[in-house]
Amino acid sequence: MNHRNQSHFFWGPYAPLEAMTGLSLLVLASIRLAFALFCAGALVWVFCISALVYFSAKNILPRKGRFVILLFLSSFICSVYILFAALLNPIFTESAWFFTLLVPPCFIASNVVPDLEGLIVEESLPRVFLEAASLGLLIIAISLIREPLGFFSLSFPGGEGGIRQLFNDSQDGGFFPIRILSMSGGGLLLLGYLAALFKQFKIRYFGRETEPGGDK
């Protein structure tokens, strides 16, 4: 039995807050909701398309160097995503493309493809999608805390300037201990609190071992 395929995509040992997958992406991309939405789309695109191509062609790929092949493949697919985004919204993509460069390393670090390599494409792709979507939704959830408290705004991709805000950004005044959430240090602090709450919630309601073969 493949433990990864059987584990829950959010509560299991491979969940983003459990394995701290994509820590840098969680902190950097969650600074604004617009960036979080952009990165969530990149995660789903890169994870699913890379896995689809890899699983479809794994019989003709060499056994050695598959890690390098995955890295180049995911980087190329990420570049295609950035190209499409630049054609649709060049101004916004110019300020958000840097975050997407962290998606291929995040895909490799998740180790999702080697763990599911023994499964057929129809069994592996839903799992890959769920892991990418769970990380993307977590980034969006954190951005919904950081941007309103840190910038007093809520943004979406679009508009003449590349980003459309629901209400005006206020740079003056504000309570500094709250506005620090807009900085990288504040993002790390918030992520640390969320990880601690996640651990306590999981232990209290699911126990230390939530699945067969899971970590304790």
Describe the structure in your own words.
Helices cover 67% and strands 3% of the residues. It has eleven helices and two strands. It has helices spanning 3-6, 16-19, 23-29, 33-57, 66-88, 90-100, 103-110, 112-115, 121-151, 176-179, 184-206, and strands at 155-157, 163-165. Strand 1 and strand 2 form a beta hairpin. Helix 5 (66-88) packs antiparallel against helix 6 (90-100).
Helix content: 55-70%
Main sheet characteristics:
2 strands, antiparallel
End-to-end distance, in Å? 19 Å
Strand order of the largest sheet: 1-2
Mean pLDDT over the full residue set: 80
Structural class: mainly alpha
* Shape, principal axes of CA atoms: flat
Task: Point out poorly predicted stretches.
Answer: 209-216
Number of discrete helical segments: 11
The share of residues in extended strands comes to under 5%
Number of β-strand runs: 2
H and E order: HHHHHHHHHEEHH
Alpha-carbon Rg, integer = 18 Å
